[in-house]
Amino acid sequence: MTDIVQVKDLTKRYDNGFEALSGVNLNIREGEIIALLGPNGAGKTTLISTICGITQASAGSVTVGGHDIVEDYRRARSMIGLVPQETHVESFEKVVRTVQFSRGLFGKRRDDALVEKVLRSLSLWEKKDSKLMQLSGGMKRRVLIAKALAHEPRVLFLDEPTAGVDVELRKDMWEVVRGLKEQGVTIILTTHYIEEAEAMADRIGIINKGQISLVEEKDALMRRLGQKTLQIELAEAVEAVPEALSHLPLTAEGGRLVYSYDSQSDHTGITGLLNEIRDAGLQMTDLQTRQSSLEEIFVSLVKEDA
C-alpha cells in the first residue's frame, strides 16, 4: 500500500526551548484510518498543524502525495482537509454558503451538486439555509467536516472530531468516517475516546512527550499487548486465593478467581488450572474469558514512557 503522507525527523521547538515534537517519523498509508492517541500535551495537535502547514517545523520534512509542504505548499495543502478541535464558525453565514466558500478558497470551481452530496452525507441538507448560530454544537462540528471535504481532499485530519458531542451523534459521525474511507479518503484521527479508535482505526499510533513511541496494526497490537484473563465463578465466593492454589497466577476479585495468561502461547495452562481447582475441592459454576481493551493497553504504554 502506498504511503500518502511521509513525516521524517520532524521537530518543533519554540523560542522558550520547549520541544513539542522531537524527531517524529510517521508514514501514513493511502486509504487507511490511523488513530493518534496520547495524553494532553503529547504533541498530537502540533503534529497535525505542522503537517497541514499551519505551524512551521524547526527541522525535518513532510510530504503529502509526494509534495513537500514547504517547497510545494499549495499542491500539498490542496490534498488535505482539516477539521480542528475548535468550532469557530461565521455565526451569521448560512450552512451552504460557508461550505461553498471553503471550496472556493482552494480555487475549485463552483459545484452545487458536490456540495449537496457532502451536506446530505453529513445529514446537513435540511439545515442548508440555516445560519450557523442556529445550530447545535454537534451540527456545527458536522459543518466543519463539510468545509474540510468541500475541495475533495485525499487526506482528512480529524482533531478530536467528536469532543463534546453526545453518544448518538458520535456514532453517526463514526458512520460518516467509515463512508469516507470507502470512498478512498485517508483519515488521521486524534481522539480522547479510546473506544472511537478501537471501533474505527486500522492502525494505532501512540504519541507522548513529542515522540511517536509506537505505530501498529490495531488488531496486532491488541493481540500482542492485550492481556487475557479467565474469570472463574465458584459455587461459594472466596475472599482470597486458597492456600492450595497460591502457587498459581491467580487473584480473588469479587468472590471469583481470576487467572491471567498469554493467549498467544502454545500452553496457556488452563487445563492444569481447572484440574487443580477441582482437586482443591472448589466447585466451578461458570467460566468467562476477557481481553484487555485498547484503553488499558494505551494507559500501560503511556505509564511506561512516564
Describe the protein.
With 306 residues, the protein is α/β, with parallel strands linked by helices. It folds into two domains: 3-223, P-loop containing nucleotide triphosphate hydrolases (Rossmann fold), CATH 3.40.50; 227-293, Alpha-Beta Plaits. The protein is 33% helix and 28% strand. It has ten helices and 14 strands. The chain has helices at residues 44-51, 73-78, 95-105, 112-121, 137-149, 167-182, 194-200, 218-225, 270-279, 294-305; strands at 3-13, 19-29, 33-37, 59-64, 67-68, 80-83, 155-159, 186-190, 203-208, 211-217, 228-234, 250-253, 256-261, 284-291. The strands form three sheets. Strands 6-7-8-3-9-10 form a six-stranded mixed sheet, with helices on both faces. A four-stranded antiparallel sheet has the order 2-1-4-5. Strands 12-13-11-14 form a four-stranded antiparallel sheet, with helices on one face. Helix 3 runs parallel beside helix 5. The mean pLDDT is 87.
